[in-house]
Amino acid sequence: MYAFDIERPTTVAEAVNALKTDEAQPLGGGQTLIPTLKARLAAPSKLVSLSAIAEMIGISREGSTIRIGGATTHGQVATELAESYPALGYLASKIGDPAVRNRGTIGGSVANNDPAACYPAACLASGATITTNTRDIAADDFFLGMFETALEEDEIVTAVTFPVPQKADYQKFEQPASRFPLVGVFVAKHDDGVRVAVTGASESGVFRWTEAEEALSADFSAGALDGLSVDADGMITDLHGDGAYRAHLIKVLTGRAVTASR
Amino acid sequence: MKTTLTVNGRSHQVEHDARRTLLDTIRDDLGLPGTKKGCDHGQCGACTILLNGERVNSCLCLTAMHDGDDITTIEGIGSPDRLSALQKAFVEKDGYQCGYCTPGQIMSATAMLREVSEGAPSYVSGDLDGAALTDAEMAERMSGNLCRCSAYPLIREAILMASEAET
């Protein structure tokens, strides 16, 4: 690791202030950032740990929405949402391994926007709102591309709010060593239509498969996808699978998610 | 910088660089070498400790993030003449070959058995109300701890033995 300073504020206001230093960076659970620092792939001047900010930790139900604090761990989401939003609880329960889930946070995951992260698919399909210290951002406007988000330099993800759909499911085709999705598909059936979000597949990061959304909004069954296909252009090709394989998986997993949704 | 930690019931103040991880603090500053450094990247689980009761990879915790936290290491759950149920079961079942991953396996299993008793869900069987700790269930719940010698069958036997001893 290159040298850095570290601060551990206890309020969002203090954290925002601490981030005003040039090249300062927020630190969530550190499950991605710390290995990145160890590999000397990042050189922040200062880390601002968000793990001691009580107002950013915890889950609350507000009517038909669920609000998850930005510093809430995957482990807590997996345990607490098993009943109230099973598809999201299940998604959280399949991230990494138990020790990683006890540290990694939802705010860190969405702010990093890894093209194969699970949470961005849940945010996009649920129509979630990402709340920062300055504003609310719709998931549709938040994820801009591979590792790119709408966040400004000193902006912190303080919470993510999920409308709970009528039915939903997440299907993840795992790369077995890393447990990241080769492709992951989150399908959510809302009062006003179906949303389908795909992670792991595209070179531009998480995206919505709008043709499938239209077909499924008219007929919520795996058969509704029969005539559809995903263009392999722009899909990730790596040693685990090529673009055509990933494109094929998107359709297969979308069908499975529709059938399994509850 | 200075950080105060409670490790195995004893309070310590350590002076350290901002880059220090809990793993290095525990091993090098506090002289507790039971916690092992395997990959140092959060992949292998050899450095698993209990942080405020929850299992974490100590190699991915910066010491500066943990002022005031409570830590338990392999040295804190038993001693050679008073082994914990899991330590005893690992000896009895030969739950290792080289032994390097064993402290991490035992710390992880210590937390895992508590999680199971509290009904923590896993996607293998949904919940464990009245269900047995099957091989698949244990493999999933211990998936963060790799054993390069692949002693997994005996590790699972040891965990099962300890879980039966506790209930």
Automatic annotation (TrEMBL), chain A:
Protein name, as recorded: Carbon monoxide dehydrogenase medium chain
Lineage: Bacteria, Pseudomonadati, Pseudomonadota, Alphaproteobacteria, Rhodobacterales
Gene3D superfamilies according to UniProt: 3.30.465.10, CO dehydrogenase flavoprotein, C-terminal domain, Uridine Diphospho-n-acetylenolpyruvylglucosamine Reductase, domain 2
Alphabetized GO MF terms: carbon-monoxide oxygenase activity; FAD binding
InterPro entries hit by this protein: CO_DH_flav_C, CO_DH_flav_C_dom_sf, Diverse_Substr_Oxidored, FAD-bd_PCMH, FAD-bd_PCMH-like_sf, FAD-bd_PCMH_sub1, FAD-bd_PCMH_sub2, Mopterin_DH_FAD-bd
PROSITE patterns xrefs: FAD_PCMH
SMART domains the UniProt entry points to: CO_deh_flav_C (SM01092)
Enzyme class per UniProt: oxidoreductase
EC number, as in UniProt: 1.2.5.3
Record organism: Sulfitobacter pontiacus
Superkingdom per UniProt: Bacteria
